[in-house]
């Protein structure tokens, strides 16, 4: 089974930067060409993906204990009981 | 042979309805299975001995309710989804153990699928052809229709995954029929066949000024982005957006319109918003929310002794209107709350909210005080639409239980 590798947020940032450069080049000649429009659409898609990655990372960083407890529910600092 | 009918409205997989002596019907959650028997067991009792009996197993009274949510990318669909799934209880999470870049969210009752997964062209394909993701030519509506229809009929499907990071179409994932299926993306109401499958549809309509302000907030921190690049990206996508996405709002049962405030002259910060909930009249199982008196035209400023508001305050409006030739009711909120718990004062003046108890809207909003839009009309109206969808779902399920589906002979 092929398991795609998740790109690191850093890598997405690089991709966004690259895609903006490409779009600016693609639009240098004709700003209404399909090539130009598709290039800016790619920028939008990558910017949205970058935002998602940032949000995910922020959620992870927001509560270090929660993140730790997800992987180690049996440790003393993570145990909770419903009584 | 005894005739009996057994059904329950809520349980997921054990609904049985056994009708007529000659036809036996058993319902399971998934696939249709038909058994034919030619038994002589009943001959002693003299009932049609030797006749064929049909047992139909269908998802009849546990049919999936399908909701469509349309909005442009980066316009708060995910926040809306989290508010919606929270109304039904339980958190929505990506499918466990699958593709880490899956766009699907699953909770106990609800499955949300992203329609980008039905792209027929991947990122390179679109570049070669010079089309955007907004263009219908980049999307496979036949597959979208087939799979949404199958899920609605109670059949699990293998749905492709569009990977937003790599821009490629990944191997498919299994989607099982949930109680509520939400299809969200750019084109849920574009294809008339898919549109007809929807039990309810919502369009998030963000004005250009607000879209620009939101994208600045989202992208300015990103390397390479500048005001010019953000503007250029919005401008480049605009023709396709206006041709293919925007016209879908005429079909929506509810439109949430987000506009710049009118309380501050020439405001273009996009922080204070005027939000309108446009609700279609005469939609099955959906009765619009109103302020004070149904059908009147009202303007209300709640700020005063009972509600603390700082500059620029809050203003509500309500009234009947027409929208793309349809009769609608519009509730509007301009401004923002300073203290979320005072929202209860506003809630108590709104009617037809479909809450289960007094204060449920406020409670839902407080639960997610950290989500974007929690102090203005976007959060308020998204929460209300969530409650309306719960009500709609419960009515649809109750109606199905009242009329056991006839066995297919």
Automatic annotation (TrEMBL), chain B:
Q: In which pathway does it act?
A: Carbohydrate biosynthesis; Calvin cycle
UniProt feature coiled coil, ranges: none
All copies of the Phosphoribulokinase/uridine kinase domain together span 66-264
User: Which Enzyme Commission numbers does its entry carry?
Assistant: 2.7.1.19
Return the InterPro entries for the record: P-loop_NTPase (IPR027417), PRK (IPR006082), PRK/URK (IPR006083)
The record lists the catalysed reaction(s) as: D-ribulose 5-phosphate + ATP = D-ribulose 1,5-bisphosphate + ADP + H(+)
GO BP term (any one): reductive pentose-phosphate cycle
Is Chloroplast set as a keyword in this record? yes
Lineage top rank: taxon: Eukaryota
Keyword Isomerase in the entry? The reply is: no
Principal location class: plastid
| Compartment(s) | Plastid, Chloroplast
What would be an example GO MF term here?
A: ATP binding
* GO cellular component, as recorded: chloroplast
Classification via PROSITE patterns? PHOSPHORIBULOKINASE (PS00567)
**NCBIfam families in the record:** PRK07429.1
Instruction: Give the UniProt family note.
Output: Belongs to the phosphoribulokinase family.
Entry protein name: Phosphoribulokinase
From what organism does this protein derive? Vigna radiata var. radiata
Identify the gene encoding this protein: LOC106777824
């Amino acid at each position: 089974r092929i398991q795609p590798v998740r790109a690191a947020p850093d890598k997405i940032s690089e991709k966004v930067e690259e895609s903006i450069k490409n779009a600016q080049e693609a639009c240098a000649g004709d700003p209404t060409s399909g090539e130009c429009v598709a290039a800016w659409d790619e920028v939008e898609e990558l910017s949205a993906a970058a935002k998602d990655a940032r949000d995910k990372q922020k959620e992870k960083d927001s509560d270090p204990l929660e993140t730790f407890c997800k992987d180690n529910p049996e440790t003393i600092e993570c145990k909770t009981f419903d009584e | 042979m005894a005739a009996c009918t057994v059904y329950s409205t809520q349980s997921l997989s054990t609904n049985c309805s056994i009708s007529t002596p000659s036809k036996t019907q058993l319902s399971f959650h998934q696939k249709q299975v038909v058994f034919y028997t030619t038994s002589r067991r009943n001959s002693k009792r003299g009932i049609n001995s030797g006749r064929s009996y049909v047992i139909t197993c269908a998802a009849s009274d546990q049919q999936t309710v399908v909701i469509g949510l349309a909005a442009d990318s980066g316009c708060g669909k995910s926040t809306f989804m989290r508010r919606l799934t929270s109304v039904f209880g339980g958190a929505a999470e990506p499918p466990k153990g699958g593709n880490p870049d899956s766009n699907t969210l699953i909770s106990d009752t609800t499955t949300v699928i992203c329609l980008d997964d039905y792209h027929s062209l991947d990122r390179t394909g679109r570049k070669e052809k010079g089309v955007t993701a907004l263009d219908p030519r980049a999307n496979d509506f036949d597959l979208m229709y087939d799979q949404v229809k199958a899920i609605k009929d109670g059949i699990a499907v293998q749905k492709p995954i569009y990977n937003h990071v790599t821009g490629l179409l990944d191997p498919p994932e299994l989607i099982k029929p949930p109680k509520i299926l939400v299809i969200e993306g750019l084109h849920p109401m574009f294809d008339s066949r898919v549109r007809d499958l929807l039990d309810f549809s919502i369009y998030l309509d963000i004005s250009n000024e607000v879209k620009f302000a939101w994208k600045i907030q989202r992208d300015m921190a990103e390397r390479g982005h500048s005001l010019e690049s953000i503007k250029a990206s919005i401008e480049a996508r605009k023709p396709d957006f206006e041709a293919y996405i925007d016209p879908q709002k005429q079909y929506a049962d509810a439109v949430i319109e987000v506009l710049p405030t009118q309380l501050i002259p020439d405001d273009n910060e996009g922080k204070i918003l005027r939000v309108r909930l446009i609700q279609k009249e005469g939609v099955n199982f959906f009765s619009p929310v109103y302020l004070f008196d149904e059908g009147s035209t009202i303007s209300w400023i709640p700020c005063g002794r009972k509600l603390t508001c700082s500059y620029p305050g809050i203003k509500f409006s309500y009234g009947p209107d027409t929208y793309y030739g349809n009769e609608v009711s519009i509730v509007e909120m301009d401004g923002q709350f300073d203290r979320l718990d005072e929202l209860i004062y506003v809630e108590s003046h709104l009617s037809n909210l479909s809450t289960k108890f007094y204060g449920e809207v406020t409670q839902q909003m407080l639960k997610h005080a950290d989500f974007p839009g929690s102090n203005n009309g976007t959060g308020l109206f998204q929460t209300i639409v969530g409650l309306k969808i719960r009500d709609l779902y419960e009515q649809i399920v109750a109606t199905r239980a009242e009329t056991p589906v006839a066995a297919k002979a």
